[in-house]
Amino acid sequence: MSKSEFRINNHRSSRELSHETSITVVGIGNEFRGDDAVGLMVLRQLKGSTPTGARLIELAGDESHLLELMRSADAMIIVDAVQSSAPAGTIFRVDTGRESAPKDFLFFSTHAFETVTAIETARALGILPRETLLYGIVGKDFSYKVGMTEEVEDAIEVIREGILEEIYLHHSRQSVGK
Amino acid sequence: MPMLSEKKANHMNSKSIKVDYIARVEGEGALTVKMKDGQVSDVKFRIFEPPRFFEAFLRGRKYSEAPDITARICGICPIAYQMSSVHAMENLFQVKVGGQLRELRRLLYCGEWIESHALHIYMLHAPDFLGYDDAIQLAGDHPDAVQRGLRLKKAGNDLVALLAGREIHPINVKVGGFYKLPDRKDFDGVLESLKRARDEAYETVIWTSKLSFPDFESDYEFVALSHPDEYPFNEGRLVSNMGLNIDIRDYELVFHESHVEYSNALQSTMKNPRTSDSQVSQDESRGAYLTGPLARFNLNFEKLSPIALKGAEEANIRPPVLNPFKSIVVRAIETLYACDEAIRIIENYDAPENSAVTFQVRPGFGFGCTEAPRGILYHRYLIGDDGLIKDAKIVPPTAQNQKMIESDLRNFVSSNIKMSKQDLTLRCEQVVRNYDPCISCATHFVRLDISEEL
Predict the structure, then answer these.
(1) Touching check for A108 and chain B: CB below 8 Å?
(2) Would you call A9 and B74 a contact, using CB atoms and an 8 Å cutoff?
(3) Is residue A13 part of a domain?
(4) What CATH number does residue A148 fall under?
(5) Which of residues 327-356 of B touch A (CB under 8 A)?
(6) Does residue B23 belong to the interface with chain A, where contact is any CB pair within 8 Å?
(7) Which among A145, B253, B354, B444 has the fewest CB atoms less than 10 Å away?
(8) Quick one: pLDDT at residue B40?
(9) What residues of A are in contact with residue B150 (Cβ under 8 Å)?
(10) Any CB–CB contact under 8 A between B444 and chain A?
(11) Which residue in B444, B449, B450 has the most chain A C-beta atoms within 10 A of its own C-beta, making it the best mutation to test that interface?
């Protein structure tokens, strides 16, 4: 265990954080399933390069936790692997804050309680942040292994830059709003 | 969904239900039910599970890495994997973790049961009973119920986050105890939310008890841990309603895993009946068994706390519960118990001086079995003189329930052969979800494809 990673959370921490956090970026995946790790890897690439206040969260296996994160987020960017007939490394960007995720996405990325269900359930409950973006990266090898295919690796930097731009745009919109 | 041509179906006099990937079960799974001449001719429930990969991954790692590595097997029940692994190591090293450290482990397990059960009850299983495709529709029509489920789940999440160091990939559990202990005051916020959660868990018991349950019962052999003083989480003997009563180190003398061609998971069955440790015979097949909430409830009912017993009484549910569809009510009762037990532990908590007990690493075999939300989770390790893992065996609850799920599907379809194929397909999925199967625990990625074909 890395000592620097460890902290005892307390009940108030997330609430306090919500007051000072403008945007939450969630990377979803399983690092033992090849290309499925891409959401986590994008998030790790973002660490250290986002403005103060941006919250970076890794999720592995329980996408229903998105609902909880949404309660305390003004804006959210979700990064997840998807399966599609499109070439590996293709990036989908869906403005799920404004429109429903395409039904086809259910075919691309689903789980017990998967990302799109979480987004749509949050919308039904009225807790979906007004700004919610979903980045889906097409993978092709989801077997039990550590490491991603080259095309997916190559997409990481593109998404990282895209997300950084989204964050700065969000901040500038907030500043104008003030 | 492509429909089977009526003419073709009549001509063939056979039909099949095929669900390539089942939504609302954890991970990946698929089921096929074939019928011929009004009879069920074949049932296959395929699961793809990761423990084989992790067993290989563990070899050559230090004994102390097992809790954090195995926690990655399941995103829903990482604590169960941590607990079974530390108990296996402590079994080998002859370490006894008692007092408040033992209580804290129990508390951590309460958190996992609450979050896992709340997720399954409200988001995955309830839509089946209320005629919805998914939680999105449920949230649209019953937002208060879904919000209640989310609050319950959050109470569990907060408890796990507090004790495990963080919500995702818990890292605070180690062989001998914990890396770091919480102070008494750290529990203040969690205690308040658990008290609210206990009230809402009670409401959940009543809410689930009013659902409509298909008339379906089976003569199950239920297997669960049993402890003389408590509803089981971490410790106890393995018992059944048909005479099993063994130490967990004898698990592999009784439970047998075999590979079935259509599934990459190993399927568990029980060997011969036995009534005591001295009566071991391995030649008589005993077949499928059921582990999980129904088994725990039926075998440990009297160990539930007064409020959980009161909830069960008001819900008019008492052992033996033989209808697997009623597992949703039993999960609610266990959630109520876990909230109540967590409150008891917190109210009596006094931080111990040391976060872990000391021990000497020894070579040999270590055995661990604890009650994951879905049932018994068995770990066995062989540790070398150098403290490295030479071999690991992990048997998750879903692999143990797999054969019983097939049996339920066979029985359910046989008794409902006249039901429309669409309804039967949905009911078959519900039969699978009765077990809250963690089919490939940490697999976040699944493709959904429901089809029906010859």
Answers:
(1) yes
(2) no
(3) no
(4) 3.40.50.1450
(5) none
(6) yes
(7) B354
(8) 82
(9) 64, 67-68
(10) yes
(11) B444
What pLDDT sits at residue B168? 63
Q: Indicate the average pLDDT of chain A.
A: 79
Which chain A residues have a beta carbon less than 8 Å from that of B157?
Answer: 65, 68
Residue A68: which of B74, B150, B166 has the nearest Cβ?
A: B150
pLDDT of A17 over the 90 cut = no
Residue A64 lies in a domain: yes
Quote the crossing angle between the two packed helices B327-347 and B143-164, to the nearest 10°: 40
Q: How far is A113 from chain B (nearest CA, A)?
A: 6
Verify whether the Cβ–Cβ distance A6 to B157 is below 8 Å. Answer: no
Model pLDDT, residue B296: 98
CA distance B196 to chain A (A): 14
Instruction: Please name the residue of chain A whose CA is at the shortest distance from the CA of residue B51.
Output: A144
Chain A CB within 8 Å of residue B147 CB: yes
What is the reported pLDDT for B270?
Answer: 82
Taking one residue from A and the other from B, the number of pairs with CB-CB distance under 8 angstroms is: 156
pLDDT tens, chain B, 454 aa long:
222 233 333 333 445 555 554 444 444 556 778 877 778 888 877 776 666 788 999 999 999 999 999 988 877 889 999 999 999 999 999 999 999 999 999 999 999 999 999 999 999 899 999 999 888 999 999 999 999 999 999 999 999 999 987 666 678 999 999 999 999 999 998 999 999 999 999 999 999 999 999 999 999 999 999 999 999 999 999 999 999 999 999 999 999 877 766 665 677 888 764 444 444 444 445 789 999 999 999 999 999 999 999 999 999 999 999 999 999 999 999 999 999 999 999 999 999 999 999 999 999 999 999 999 999 999 999 999 999 999 999 999 988 998 898 899 889 988 988 888 788 888 888 888 899 887 544 333 333 232 333 3
Q: How many domains does chain A have?
A: 1
| Structural domain that includes position A47 | 21-177
Asked whether the beta carbons of residue B53 and residue A109 sit closer than 8 angstroms, the reply is no
Is residue A27 in some structural domain?
Answer: yes
A63 interfacial to chain B (CB closer than 8 Å): yes
Domain membership of residue A1 (yes or no) is no
Give B140→chain A minimum CA distance, Å: 5
CB distance A112–B26 less than 8 Å?
yes
Digit-coded pLDDT (tens) for A136-175: 898 888 878 889 999 999 999 999 999 999 998 887 777 6
